[in-house]
Amino acid sequence: MRRLPFSSDYMEGAHPAVLDALIRTNMESTDGYGADPYCAAAEQAILEACGCPEGAVRFLVGGTQTNALIISCLLRPYQGVIAAESSHIAVHEAGAIEAGGHKVLTLPAQNGKITAEAVRALTEAYYDNEVRDHMVQPGMVYLSQPTEFGTLYTRAELAAIRDVCHENGMLLYVDGARLAYALGSAANDVSLRDLASLTDIFYIGGTKCGLLFGEAVVMPCKDLIPGFFTMIKQHGALLAKGRILGVQFGAMFGVDGVAPQPGVLLYEQLGKKVVNYAQRIRAKLIERGLPLYIDSPTNQIFCVYPDADLPALGKKVNYGYMERYDADHTVIRFCTSWATQEEDVAALLEIL
Amino acid sequence: MRRLPFSSDYMEGAHPAVLDALIRTNMESTDGYGADPYCAAAEQAILEACGCPEGAVRFLVGGTQTNALIISCLLRPYQGVIAAESSHIAVHEAGAIEAGGHKVLTLPAQNGKITAEAVRALTEAYYDNEVRDHMVQPGMVYLSQPTEFGTLYTRAELAAIRDVCHENGMLLYVDGARLAYALGSAANDVSLRDLASLTDIFYIGGTKCGLLFGEAVVMPCKDLIPGFFTMIKQHGALLAKGRILGVQFGAMFGVDGVAPQPGVLLYEQLGKKVVNYAQRIRAKLIERGLPLYIDSPTNQIFCVYPDADLPALGKKVNYGYMERYDADHTVIRFCTSWATQEEDVAALLEIL
Amino acid sequence: MRRLPFSSDYMEGAHPAVLDALIRTNMESTDGYGADPYCAAAEQAILEACGCPEGAVRFLVGGTQTNALIISCLLRPYQGVIAAESSHIAVHEAGAIEAGGHKVLTLPAQNGKITAEAVRALTEAYYDNEVRDHMVQPGMVYLSQPTEFGTLYTRAELAAIRDVCHENGMLLYVDGARLAYALGSAANDVSLRDLASLTDIFYIGGTKCGLLFGEAVVMPCKDLIPGFFTMIKQHGALLAKGRILGVQFGAMFGVDGVAPQPGVLLYEQLGKKVVNYAQRIRAKLIERGLPLYIDSPTNQIFCVYPDADLPALGKKVNYGYMERYDADHTVIRFCTSWATQEEDVAALLEIL
Amino acid sequence: MRRLPFSSDYMEGAHPAVLDALIRTNMESTDGYGADPYCAAAEQAILEACGCPEGAVRFLVGGTQTNALIISCLLRPYQGVIAAESSHIAVHEAGAIEAGGHKVLTLPAQNGKITAEAVRALTEAYYDNEVRDHMVQPGMVYLSQPTEFGTLYTRAELAAIRDVCHENGMLLYVDGARLAYALGSAANDVSLRDLASLTDIFYIGGTKCGLLFGEAVVMPCKDLIPGFFTMIKQHGALLAKGRILGVQFGAMFGVDGVAPQPGVLLYEQLGKKVVNYAQRIRAKLIERGLPLYIDSPTNQIFCVYPDADLPALGKKVNYGYMERYDADHTVIRFCTSWATQEEDVAALLEIL
Asked: Which fold has domain C4-10+267-351?
């Protein structure tokens, strides 16, 4: 029997508009490695959406690859990256950052987020330390928007962290693996343009937001990484048929007129409906008295579930396992995506 | 004006059968990271085609990624990999092998190939050297089939190299980025089963052989690489929607009955027609008196072209630039692929 | 004016017995890279002292080098090393472990130590985690004896940690940078033989214990690290005039009859007197009501000192700065060594 | 029976003047990690000898360590280092450069040397290549002076290579492991001042030139490597008792008035006598009709020796084995050093 699909946001293929674009362009012959008109058009559309026409965009395949590559390209060998102890790079990338030679300098997370104050304290402790020359220098701050727990940084919070970064010679990098679901949240006040003006580099997630795969790295200052193309190649991150990334992101950012309505980009609109689905699940959980583990305003809802009830739930629903909470409870996740069907949400609410 | 597309074999999207499979399965919901039925079925089909049902298959995204990952997983830190000085890993992977910590121990190439004798000589020189403990130990031999110049190893040549490897504690790894075009060549006597019995590990190329992207690593002995999954993740080579690789390779290896005719796999049949196209181009070049740079029996034809005539050719044909030959000549490549149209071949022959 | 030297245990040259051995052998001509009679004799003497004549010893130059090399040699790329968050490898080696590709999996420290229970909890959490294949696998436990805060593991504590290690496929490695001061402590119950029987690998510190420089890596099982010599070379850790290390350690371990008294090794006896000096300083601090930051039974004494009194102290005493304690206090260290003079201790006690 | 010691120049301890300085300063108490007056004085003396008072000197332990560290500090990840195929970094450093992530781009050697023309050709071939973005970029040229075969670059040759470097955005780095024997050769026209004005960075070898160990890295522009101290630490190359390096180099460069005669530095004078010894051996070999393998004007003499006569020679002389020449001959080396005794030279000449 089919179980309701709420375990993650990368369980289906591509959004229909993306798939259509791939089908439409399939037999065209273009140059490889991103030197094609589709990548150029998608880059231009993204830069326009970000309000930084002088910047540059590079298309990569996946999130861990993107994080490892960018951090490795931007840090000096003696530098590390500050991140939440619950962040993807600290926990779930199999040590990719360390494999690239860098320490992740972790900070305790509050709802998956770190604060400007904590970043400042860590940085000051480093610069105040008399033996700091024997220690890893903080060289970058890594954030995810939304975070791994679905929470959001506000524009003010980002600006405060950016200030600490720049006062201390650090770069600010934002991982937007699920960025469409931030943009689609009513609670969000950070636009693509804000990210471009507040960060040194960020990426717009495709894999979890309707593409077969793909992440778009945005550099508001285009010369940020000398030799970037060669480093992408060296990391095994250069797609031979690079245009497949350009075609997909083009569909999301209005190239070829594929926009849900005039002036609205598919990428910005994609998350609205499904974040709303998630919030209905959240409301239901609260109504049922099931405690939220972390209260998220985006497409992932985390709750503390009685172990005794999990087998029954699991028969009907494919939910996400997160971690053990206590002897009798487990943290689980309900995740919606661009592919979530309204009737499945209704069925889930019924079950809950 | 449209130029005839003969520059490379990764200029179009996916083979229609592959694209169809992606479209057909697009909205299904499956687990991520390769733990889905499509990857399982494709693995089984490939192992069957290779005659090693006890082996294992892992799907990766691209060739440089695959080479860097496998070499890094299998060599000890003090070991290097023997390869032709013209090999992809030695020249065109932006130093990815060295970035992973290993020296490429190059041998002069003859028609893009290395010999068992040369491998033996290098290995013996190492073991005879009194200060070998200060030197990089040869730990693996890397070959490409077909080579970067389209030439083929015979079964006997592979067996001889395999023998030298195993006598000296080295692994044999074959890069099959263009393997379909070896399998499609009348001159080829090395089957998938031969590769599985003669090598320790090899990969079946998808990117250049009709997939949007993807390479299938075949390990006849399934436990060759402890922790392989985690190392794939660590290298940023783990596709979240892993099933996209399974679906594509499934289409190539007869899963779901997508076979050109009973008992014939699409992957094995794909290259026949287009290698024939390439050989017609080869015959024409010889007829015209244009010297072949290297004589290839597969889908890539290399010739020495007068610089004076290149601009005219370039207006009509998108050929591949290889390297300068002498003051007045350039080595260029004509490359056919699964996407090559017969009328384009006819037009090219006309122009030549 | 000369300040009393209590800041560290690597401020002077070599112990007179070590210097004498260097002088005596200076003009002899021997083979390089450790293939000399002095290294052979020192290896044999150390193995005898450790009760593992079938083992092997390799001599390296410094502590960070030794830690980085051993961890890099013994972990698989997807593994990390468990260590106290206050451990040298986690804080004061400039990211050397990460530069070698490995994450340091930190545990909270209690008096600089970690417990078998905490190691077990971390390991079980890893093996219980459903997505552990996306995470760094714990592959080794790193301890220092004495710790960075001068505290000691008991034989029972080491045995308990060793058990957790071996139950979970992890190696146990002990950093003995200051081992002579553990061996010289009345509170210590862990002998060289215990270390050899309880650990997989450990090192006997020379730099901080009377040598010009040098650390002796002891492997009770001599084949623990295949290709170790070449990896030492590759890490830039192979001393050309390797015999200088053998000569120095030989002097410490009774080669050539340089023993303080029959049956007692200089290395085992070296710390006794000066640990006693340190304990007199400790007693004085307690008497004075200056709180100990951590209570250490070896040669390092840590106390919380009022900032207001530091300038006066600093004029007369070269103490070690550790870290800020609160707005008005600093953690400082008084450190004795083989070179400490009794009259300087008396003078310090006077000042305190 | 004692064999005459001619196998290498690192078989004895330290030059008497160096040993005296160590003995004299042994019990002084100084700060660690190079922050001591001896390192400061040695740095100043070296910079003065090099005519670059605005530069900086850092003291490291050994040659492979120095090469690996400097190359790793100065190259971007996508860059490689050009070197002779017979160079130490290409052959005898166990892959240390590749372990640091960089390819060694080898050029054929002529008498152990490479030419400005060959460097230019390699560089131009790279910049002319249409797919250079997929290739390793040459970022540095590595030379050794004298070379591994004892030969010397002239000032004009160095200047020509320097020009090619700077025209192509590459740094010039000179490995002076045996520099004292270049400075002591009558054939040499390259002074320390020349090296400081012609290179971006070079090192003055101590290990093979009379120190127990140690190499002095000279940077005419002191800010060449940001974070150098921390990277030294990270590479395990930071000596705790750093002053031991300062004391030794100080003795060589006239600190504390230890000069053989007014205005002459011990380091510059050290090689004269023993290079002369080597040249007498060379003359004898020629007289005897034994062919020189490479004709060297410094302290290493390479000749092609009949295998039949080697056992007899080996009974009396500890010579250096280099490599097999042909079925009946071997390349061997006679090497003199600061420690070579005149009577041993006479005895060797007698035997030859």
From this structure: Aspartate Aminotransferase, domain 1 (3.90.1150)
